[in-house]
Specification:
It contains 19 helices and 15 strands. By secondary structure, the chain is α/β, with parallel strands linked by helices. α13 crosses α19. The mean pLDDT is about 95.
């Protein structure tokens, strides 16, 4: 039986169309999911949308729509972008789905019945966009520490979750499971900023707005959006429902992939909710960095936002996937600019990968009428090409197991670079001048096709369409390459493209 692998992206808040920074996360998850499928795992990849809260209620009112209509529109936009990016998710959950709302009510009731949730009154500083309460001490320059926006005084009757009662147990779990929160820098931040100063009980219901899951036994209250949203990871599998087969099969999650800005909810609130429910904790929470626009966080108000569909229109799907996966370090923020995309596109995709495939297929056609020769006549440089292939393939697998995706991609290009160098070393055009060298020339072509085949295999997780295109050109599964090689990536003129993008 195949080993299971359950991964989730964060569910996207349906306040607006996601930008390329939001889209990076789903592409990252997709690469991880595809890699594990390729390795023979039984993968379940969950994504979806988070659709409740005061912010949604206000946005819907501003547009003259009821809340459901508003979130229906945005959820469809999100799904369309995920599909456009060729993301192979297994389920798309919406927190307005009836089964999810019913399960969330049951979760709330269970926690209430066992004494983990109690009724009280909340007075504090509230950030509407983040749906978060803060103390004066937690503010940064008088603003929300998460998003930097203004906070407002709020006071209302509310239910509270006794998360403070689980603090020591959570600290012990983090201590005993060193990989539970990754990267290490994020783990240190959670421990030092939130756990060591001591946890306050969490407000888990609101009465000042109505767009949310009602507390079943006290309908004037709606359930706090984070309790509602976080539960998606288990409700999507059938938790607290008649058919919980998927839950029994896939939970606990192997990894929750989330942005560093929502790490607190996933590494503190979520594990404590699960502890209180008596359920296993996820194996790992990976807080990825941000994709910055130049050196700044993307913001509609600043006007520096890029959208995936625009980028795909200008550069192609796999080029955009490649850029966001290659440019995002494991722990530090990455950056995206049009100039960087074009430079990376030309250097890596057009000049290096595209050129390797095009040259090799053209030479097999020219020297062997398209029939891939046998590799029986070894010579200088062959062993180094083969050992590079083997070593880099192994490194790609190791990097992917720890979600070092940019490093995995860089390692694939080690093979591409080595194959290009091999062409320069063996000089097929010189060998072709003497018929006596034909067997050796055949081996050189064979070794190049094999290296390209390996690259196509490794690229399946990151650039699936490109992998298919390469395999078609090298005649994967046959003994003939394609008659007329098609450039995988045509070079882009930087000045022309920038002029085009400035309109």
């Amino acid at each position: 039986m195949n080993k299971k692998f359950y991964l989730t992206s964060a569910i996207t808040y349906t306040s607006r169309k996601p930008h390329i920074g939001n889209t990076y996360e789903i592409v990252l998850c997709d690469a991880i999911a595809r890699f594990h499928r390729q390795m023979g795992y039984d993968v379940f990849f969950l994504t979806g949308t988070d659709e409740h809260g005061q912010k949604i209620q206000e946005l819907a009112a501003a547009e003259g729509l009821n809340e459901q209509k508003y979130v229906d529109n945005v959820a469809q936009v999100v799904r369309d972008i995920w599909d456009m990016m060729n993301c192979s998710y297994d389920k798309f959950i919406r927190t307005t789905d009836d089964y999810h709302k019913t399960a969330v009510q049951k979760i709330f009731k269970k926690l209430y019945d066992q004494g983990d949730i109690y009724k009280g009154e909340y007075s504090g500083l509230y950030c509407i966009p983040d749906e978060s309460f803060w103390t004066e001490a937690q503010l940064v320059d008088g603003k929300c520490p998460d998003c930097g926006r203004d906070v407002v005084e709020a006071s209302e009757e509310a239910y509270f979750f006794k998360i403070s009662a689980y603090q020591d147990r959570l600290m012990k779990h983090i201590d005993e499971n060193p990989d539970f929160i990754q990267p290490q820098s994020r783990k240190n931040e959670m421990i030092n900023t939130f756990l060591k100063p001591g946890l306050q009980d969490l407000c888990v219901s609101r009465t000042s707005f109505t767009w949310g899951v009602p507390v079943e036994f006290d309908p004037g209250h709606v359930i706090y959006v984070w309790l509602d949203a976080l539960s998606n990871y288990i409700t999507a599998l059938g938790f607290m429902q008649d058919d919980d087969t998927l839950y029994k099969k896939y939970w606990p999650a192997d990894v929750h992939v989330i942005g560093k800005d929502i790490l607190r909810f996933h590494t503190i609130y979520w594990p404590i909710i699960l502890m209180a429910l008596g359920e296993p904790l996820p194996k790992q929470i990976f807080g990825h960095p941000w994709l910055l626009s130049g050196t700044d966080k993307m913001s509609k108000s600043v006007g520096n936002v890029m959208y995936a569909d625009d980028l795909v229109k200008h550069f192609g799907l796999d080029a955009v996937r490649y850029y966001v996966l290659r440019e995002m370090p494991y722990a530090n923020d990455g950056t995206i600019t049009y100039e960087n995309i074009i430079s990376r596109y030309n250097a890596d995709l057009a000049n290096t990968l595209g050129n390797l495939v095009n040259r090799t297929v053209s030479m097999v056609n020219k020297y062997f009428s398209g029939v891939i020769p046998s590799g029986e006549f070894g010579g200088k440089f062959d062993d180094d090409l083969k050992s590079t292939r083997a070593a880099s393939s192994q490194k790609v697998a190791e990097f992917m197991k720890t979600f070092h995706v940019a490093d995995a991609l860089a390692e694939i290009w080690v093979i591409v670079d080595r194959a290009n160098k091999y062409i320069d070393e063996t000089m097929p055009w010189v060998l072709a001048k003497d018929e006596a060298n034909k067997p050796r020339l055949g081996t050189v072509m064979y070794n190049l096709i094999e290296a390209i085949r390996e690259v196509a295999e490794l690229l399946q997780s990151f650039m699936p369409d490109t992998a298919v295109s390469i395999n078609e050109q090298i005649g994967a599964g046959t003994d003939k390459v394609t008659e007329t090689p098609t450039p995988l990536f045509a070079r882009i003129d930087m000045d022309e493209k920038l002029k085009e993008l400035s309109f």
